[in-house]
Model the fold of this input.
Amino acid sequence: MFLKSGRLRKNVLVIVLMLALALVACSDNGKSGEAKLEKYGVTTVTFWHENTGVGEEAIKAVVDAFNKKHEDIKVKPVYTAADESQNEKLLAAVAGGNPPDVSWFDRFKVGSWAEQGALTDLTEYAKQDGVTKDNYYPFAWNEANYQGKLYAMPVDTDARMLFYNKDAFKDAGLDPDKPPKTIAELEEAAEKLTIKEGSRFKRIGFIPWYNQGWLYSWGWAFGGDFYNEEEGNVTLDDPKIVESLEWMTEFAKKYDVEDITGFTDSSGSGAMDPFLTGQLAMHIGGNWSISGYLKYKPDLNYGVAPIPTPTGDNFTSWSGGMAVVIPKGAKHPDEAWEFVKFFGSEEGQEIYNDIYKTLSVMDSVNEKLGYKDDPIFSEFVKILPKSHNRPVLPEGELLWNELANAVDNAIHGNGEPKELLKSTSDLVNAELE
Done:
């Protein structure tokens, strides 16, 4: 769980750094072998990552391809557990002056880490080697930058779309080849798809806030803007964002939020996912769900479409993803950059995303991998050029938490959407100042 107070979180980070300075001790960690390599003019670049299974295979394939191309650089991948302690471990390593040369990194955190001075500025490296935003989707490049400087190299991405069960559509008398485009059509389809007995849903057509139905998803779909880059402040009380939360709140009233909560609380996962069992006809989800659907119910008859908008056009989405960074104080930043640059290149992207079966941050790579020919993946690829990234802020995690709280309070009747968003905006802006 993220810490909700920006000041509290900063104090905790300071404590972590102080403890790190006291606790970091010398260890061999294979350095004798690295010393031998350096004796022969080979620089070892240590790369921390958190991937397991297929993800680790993809990482290893990229590392192997890079090492074959460079006689004077050897990248050494090191697994670190994927939890909050992984962040603390990296912070501790930076504070102790012994960070890895390269680290796997969530682009969402670039703003806060860059603000703390924990990441190496890659701007000049990129400029010297001709690495520009032109080869990347705009949102991915934007999310890797903070205050006009590049701090990360984007690696993979995702997007949010409307998933809908075609068999449920047929059962409800809806055209399975015509998913809703407008909010009005979405409401109409949800009503026809819903089967309720008393307070129990036998099948629910749609739940706006379920799965990836975050306020980011709906705020942008309604045409709102969460951040004013020129003024440097969040704008959560944007009329369009307020309108989107008001719509979610009305939906909660119509179908009784407590009954919906009872449904979601009893929902399963994996093979018992309500979308797979037919209990949920539509939801906002991400491309990462596809592999699970293929695993647990390969014959599922479903489709994906852009998130509906009030007007039925100007479709959009929002995307996140991972990156590689050079932590501040890395011993071999020049050699580390060579690997970071390779991972972010078309060759590195194609190797990684082909094995891991996720979306690349490069349109050209997604085409090479055949995603544009797949009936489901192609819909995700189509939306990527129009997708948004969450604001790159030092208080990005606070903003995320407070938006979730605002939605929860609104749909449960604990405040009016406009006032809740205004107070949330004021809180985050106060921390930013």
Summary: Residues 200 and 259 are 7 Å apart (CA to CA). Confidence is low (pLDDT under 50) at residues 1-5, 12-30. The radius of gyration is 23 Å.
